[in-house]
Amino acid sequence: MVINMKAQEIGSFTIGIFLATIGIYIWVYNPSWVSSVHGATMGLIGAGVALILIALWKYKIRISGEVKEDERDYRIAEKASFKTFQIIFIVQGFLYATLGILDIQLPAQPVVGALFAITGFSYMGFFYLYRRNM
Fold first, then answer.
1. Which of 29, 32, 106, 129 is 20 to 30 A distant from 84 in Cα terms?
2. Residues 19, 47: contact at Cβ < 8 Å?
3. What number of other Cβ atoms are within 10 A of residue 122's Cβ?
């Protein structure tokens, strides 16, 4: 069996394995230079697994010959990303103002993680909402 992967798929797959390996290394060996082992581990392993799954998904679609997207998908993605930007901009502004007014000092990692999660979930939600309505 010959695996015919494109350079982009090979690159994504390789970088995904590299990131996941670094995440596992940090989790197992707990190096002193890492301030938050759990955050670094989950971030690296999550990003690595996502890259690997995306590369395998693109490879599967290319091999099967399916056409998974059309012009509507680009318009849906555009609308979903703009709506996500609007929500994240408002949430960040409110959070920044609240932290400034109340003089609350928070570590950056949980705040950035929460904003990252809000961004991803709101984009997925709007993308599927607009796809269903079109």
1. 106
2. yes
3. 19
Question: Do 130 and 79 contact (CB within 8 A), yes or no?
Answer: yes
Stated as kind and residue range, the H or E segment containing 81 is helix 71-102
pLDDT, one tens digit per residue, over 10-55 is: 888 899 999 999 999 999 998 888 887 888 888 889 889 988 988 8
Q: How many CB atoms lie within 10 A of CB 45?
A: 19
Distance, CA of 33 to CA of 28 (rounded, Å): 14
State both tokens at 48: 């690595």
* Cα angle: 68, vertex 46, 14; to 5 degrees: 70
What kind and span of H or E run contains 32? none
Whole-model pTM: value is: 0.61
Whether residue 48 contacts residue 5, with contact meaning beta carbons closer than 8 Å, is answered with no
